[in-house]
Each structure stands twice: as structure tokens, then as C-alpha cells.
Amino acid sequence: MRIIRFLLFPFAFIYGIVTGIRNYLYNLGYIQSHSFPIPIIKVGNLNTGGTGKTPMTQYLATSMPQSKKVGILSRGYRRKTRGFIKANANSKASEIGDEPLLLYNNVPGVEIAVCEDRKVGIENITQGSTLDLIILDDAFQQRRIIGNIEILLTTYAQPYYNDLMLPTGNLREFISGRKRADLIIVTKCPPDIDKAEMEGIKEKLRPFRNQKVLFSILKYNSLQQSINANDQADTRINIILVTGIANAKGLKNHLSGLYNIEHHFEFRDHHPFSSQDLHKIHHTHSNAPDNTLIVTTEKDWVKIEPLLSAEYKKHWVVQTIEVEFLDGGEKDLRKVIDDKIKSNESII
Q1: 76: helix, strand or coil
Q2: Sheet holding 183-187, edge to edge
Q3: Cβ contacts of residue 101 below 8 Å, gap of 6+?
Q4: What count of other Cβ atoms lies within 10 Å of the Cβ of residue 317?
Q5: Which among 7, 153, 163, 240 could disulfide-bond with 51, CB atoms 3.0 to 4.6 Å apart, if both were Cys?
Q6: Which residues neighbour 259 within 8 Å (Cβ) at sequence distance 6 or greater?
């Protein structure tokens, strides 16, 4: 795979030039950008997938006070529909996408909608509504929309300064695009990262003077309550791991330190699970030791659960996650948002 990517380097150079010209035209105003009277936070990355955009979007939405009405607008990647759709209690992943459905389930009271045209999406979600703020998920390259705050995510394991342009690497645009960000957040850091290492990473990220660099971790919540509910008393149980996410390495490393992983069914990101997939998984489970549970992610569960009968559902456990900031980063985040939105009343 690495050899193939290396051979594609000339195409990466061409792709970079094309995206660079596009950004240049936006900077000069030859391609129009649109602003809106409602505050907009754009969350995104320079790399493709796996930087933790959805958990960060959820963190931002849940950080808002109850007096503020928040909307989240996503593209709805890999859904089978088109156009503007607002999530509701009957929505399916095939209709709005797995990540928007996850957000709808996890952030009650927040309006969730999808639209491949973000301008049209904003116009629709604000029509007749009383929203105070919109969060655009996966929108750093959405130059058509002018945001009040641009949040750029990059992972600890694969920071943008160690990456190359698509298709040789995973960059969607040259790293010079980082200058548009108000905040650069290094995600999925190890919990024991020290300040000296943070400073070293900051230097390599090369932030501009107006940019703040923050560090966050993904906290894996305990499975013990769900395990007890499944009548499993032994904490060193066996598990079958099922994932369809961009990078399952962190989750697998976490779980392997607590449980015996009998098998890992690793599907591509946004995998549309089928009855055939579940048949294979349940067949493996039936041949595993008695104290074996099937563990999956929240993102995968919204697609798997509708396919399960009550009999099989009891064998499944969902690994939930939370974003936590390091070194007082949550206070810095709040200050940047308040300052940028320039509201008389604090947004967060």
C-alpha cells in the first residue's frame, strides 16, 4: 500500500495545486463566500477522517448552556438520500448518516440536520427557528461559509505536519490552510502527555500569533455497568470487537488492556452493516467462550441495533467516549468562543 501511495505522488502534487488555487480564489474573493446573521462554529481537519470531529462537535453542543438553542449541520456522509433533512425520532442512519444519528441520540434538545450544500442547509435549518448558534461538522474546507470560529483538529498520532497530500498521504489541502483556524486542537492525546511534549508539538504545528493550540484526550467510559447487566461477573471477560470507524487502534489498545479480545471484525469507516455481517459475527460469538460479549462503538451501534432481535441484543455492549481537555484547555476554548462571537452574553 505504501509503495502504491508513493507512486501516486505526482497526482498528490497536482491535487495540492488544484486545492491551492481554489483557496487562493476564495482569498481574493473571486469565489463568493456567504455570511449569516447567526453565529457559526466550523469544526474540521486538514486530514481525511479519524481526527475526532463528531466527539468534538458533541462536546461543543453539550457545553452550551440550556438557555442557548444549538443546531448542528452535517453533510450526512454515506447516506442514501439527498437534500436537506432534519433528524427526528424515526430517522435512520441510511437517511441522515451514522454520525448525525449518533449526535441526535446523544445530544437531546439540539436540532440536527444534514445537507450536502451547507449554504442551503443553513438557510433551511434557520427558517422559522430560534437557533442561537450553528455548529458545522466537517466544515474546514467549506469556504463558501464564513464562520465566526474555525476549529482545526489534528491527531496526536498523525499530526498534519507529518502528512502528505492525497493520494500519497491523507491531507485534503496544503498545511498552509491551517492559517484559517482560530483554534488548533490536538486530539486523542495519551492521558500522561506532559507539558514539555505539548510545547514540542506546538512548535511543529507552527501556529500563528492569533491562534490558540489546545490538547484533548478521548476518555473511554467503563463497560462494567453494561457487563454486569449482561450477568458477567468476571472483569477479565472475553470480547469480540466490531468496528467500522476510520481508526480503531486506540480503542483496541484500550480494550486489550482490560479484556481478552477473541476476534476483531474491522470494517471500513461508515460501513453499512448487513444481516450477513451480523450472521458472521454471531457465528463467531457462538463458538467463543461462554463469558464473551460483543463490543462496538456508538457510531456503529446506530446501524447495528435495528438489525438485532432482542435475543441477540443482550450479547452486545456499546463503548461510549467523551472528550476531555488537558492543561485547562476547556477554559481557553470558552474564552476564544466568547471573544470571537462578540456577544454581550457568554455563549458557553
Answers
A1: coil
A2: 85-86, 111-114, 70-74, 133-137, 40-45, 149-155, 183-187, 212-220, 321-325
A3: 87, 91, 92, 93, 302
A4: 21
A5: 153
A6: 236, 237, 238, 239, 295
Instruction: Specify whether the backbone of 313 is left (phi greater than 0), alpha (psi in -120 to 50) or beta.
Output: alpha
Question: How big is the CA angle at 135 (ends 223 and 59), to the nearest 5 degrees?
Answer: 25
- In CATH, 2-68+132-219+324-341 is 2.30.30: no
Residue 281's Cβ-side half-sphere holds a number of Cα atoms within 13 Å equal to 27
DSSP secondary structure code for residue 307 in this structure: G
CATH number listed for the domain at residues 224-319? 3.40.50
Which triple of cell numbers denotes residue 178?
Answer: 491551517
Q: What are the φ and ψ backbone dihedral angles of 86, each rounded to 5 degrees? A: -95, 135
| Angle (CA) 87 90 93, round 5° | 65
Q: What is the pLDDT of residues 94-109, one digit of tens each?
A: 999 999 999 999 999 9
The model's confidence at residue 236, banded by pLDDT at 50, 70 and 90, is low
**Whole-prediction pTM:** 0.93
Q: Which three cell numbers stand for residue 284?
A: 463467531
Secondary structure of residue 306 in the 3-state scheme? helix
Pick the closest to residue 295 from 232, 227, 235 (CA basis): 227
Give the position of cell 449518533: 102
